[in-house]
Amino acid sequence: SRPAWWPQRGWWPQPAWWVEISRFAIVGGVAFVVDMGLFNLLVFGPGQMLGHKPVTAKIIAALVATFVSWMGNRHWTFSERRSRRRSNELATYATINVVALLIAPSVLYVTTYWVGATGPLAANVASVTGIGVGTIVRYTGYKLWVFPLGRVSPPARRDAPGTHARGVKRHALAPTTLGARGDDRTVG
Q1: Cβ contact 137:103 at 8 Å
Q2: Labelling 127: which of 5, 85, 161, 186 has CA 20 to 30 A away?
Q3: What is the mean pLDDT of each run of 10 residues along the chain (188 residues)?
Q4: What is the largest CA-CA distance in the chain?
Q5: Helices 86-109 and 54-72 meet at what angle, rounded to 10?
Q6: Neighbours of 184 (CB within 10 A)
């Protein structure tokens, strides 16, 4: 009756979980700085480009921050569980993020237009609250549907110096030519 992502031994999460949550937090921290920085730049920065449209500014900032977050989570936090079917992974990721993206602007909308709090402090508190709730939704969604347990991606190919992408040893002085499939082959 415990969630699939919860460690099976004992009640306390295992070290691998702490590494994963730490990476998720670091990626989220970078995305948070991007989100808040861009939001404040658009609303309160020079020229106040979107000063009269804080919700629009929040949506733009959240979209940029989400892209930053996706790159970090796909290539670092959950790199061992990436799907080979990127289109399905991306569609699921996008769905989860659409839901999560609507949270921060919704909180800001309620704060600005229903509560009537329009100053920088109120806007930033609402923004941080929305980001916090959205983060919980994202992490849960990523763990359950985007990068579920049991999915293992092939290890990243790291070519040794002097080898071809397929691991074939190259001869240092041998001429190369483009093969029929466009790959670099050693001839000699």
Answers
A1: yes
A2: 5
A3: 60 73 91 93 88 90 85 84 73 85 89 90 90 87 83 53 50 48 47
A4: 77
A5: 150
A6: 13
